[in-house]
Every structure is written in structure tokens, then in C-alpha cells.
Write a structure and sequence with these properties.
With 169 residues, the chain is an alpha+beta fold. The radius of gyration is 15 Å and the shape is globular.
């Protein structure tokens, strides 16, 4: 992913008002992020645990969405799979993150959701750059490049659902 600055990130949001985008909490240390290893920029809001954000490159520019995180505690003995990067997490490592749709559909209260790594560090899990005893990657026949392409396609598919006003809620 290409490095982004604060202004680019704030302007990228498609499912919230400009005022909301201006007030949202950005990740610390933007310049120091491993941009070359990111398929998208994702972060949790430290001041609002029920909010997360995702920004990805789409059609030549960044597209950002605000996400809601349910306040659900999961058992550490249960495992779940991230639908973006296919990482397996124990307990609350995967969450159903929902995004209000962009445009008129979003104003009517329609949203879409998908199961994602709760820490939104899919890119780092995928590349083995973030290790946790509660995260595992299944043995795959796909190369790392193919897995990265699949993750990017999954993110793009999710963003397409957020952006598509014509889809039912």
C-alpha cells in the first residue's frame, strides 16, 4: 500500500460525514507504519472500543470506511476464521465488523458486515510479521503472492458492498 497522510486518510471516508471523518482518531506513527507490507490500513479506535477503521486503495485512490465492533466476549476455546486473510483466531480474535453503507442506503440505516481479524492486522498475520499464540495460518497450496492477492480481492469485495447503493440492506 502507498503511504497515506492524515488529510488523505480523512478525505477517503465514504460512509460518514466530513465532520465525523475530521474527528476520528488516526493510528499513531503513520510515517513509521510498514506500508510496504500493508494490503490495507486498519486500526481500532483506542478511545472508542466499538469503532474501527479500514482504508484501502481502490480504483486508484484510498477508500475509507468506519466500522462498528460488537461488544461480544467469545470463549478462548472457540476458533473463528477471518474472511479477509483466512487466519484462524481463538476467542475474540475475529469479530463481525459492520459498515454503514455509503450514500442513500447508509442514510436509511443499511449496513454490511464480515468477519475480520479484530485487530485489523490481516496483512501482518498473512506475512508472519505479527505472531500470536492465538492466531494460526492454515497450510495452503497458494503462494504468499496469491494469498495477498486473495486478501486484497476480499477487501475490495467488502468495499464494493459498502459502496453499492443498489444492493438491499
Amino acid at each position: 500500500m502507498n503511504p497515506l497522510g492524515e488529510t488523505e486518510i480523512r478525505k477517503s471516508f465514504v460512509n460518514c460525514s466530513k465532520g465525523e471523518a475530521g474527528r476520528l482518531s488516526l493510528p499513531r506513527g503513520l510515517a513509521e507504519l510498514p506500508w510496504e507490507s500493508l494490503d490495507f490500513l486498519g486500526w481500532r479506535d483506542p478511545g472508542a472500543p466499538d469503532r474501527s477503521y479500514l482504508v484501502a486503495e481502490r480504483d486508484g485512490g484510498p477508500v475509507g470506511v468506519t466500522l462498528r465492533v460488537p461488544n461480544v466476549r467469545r470463549s478462548l476455546t472457540r476458533t473463528n476464521v477471518c474472511s479477509l486473510c483466512i487466519s484462524v483466531h481463538a476467542g475474540s480474535g475475529v469479530a463481525l465488523l459492520t459498515a454503514r453503507r455509503a450514500g442513500a442506503a447508509g442514510r436509511q440505516g443499511n449496513s454490511v458486515g464480515t468477519y475480520m481479524c479484530a485487530d485489523l492486522a490481516c496483512s501482518l498475520h498473512l506475512r508472519g510479521l505479527k505472531k500470536s499464540p492465538l492466531v494460526s495460518r492454515p497450510e495452503e497450496s497458494l503462494t504468499l503472492d496469491e494469498q495477498i492477492a486473495r486478501t486484497r480481492a476480499n477487501v475490495d469485495r467488502f468495499l464494493a458492498q459498502v459502496l453499492d447503493d443498489s444492493l438491499p440492506g
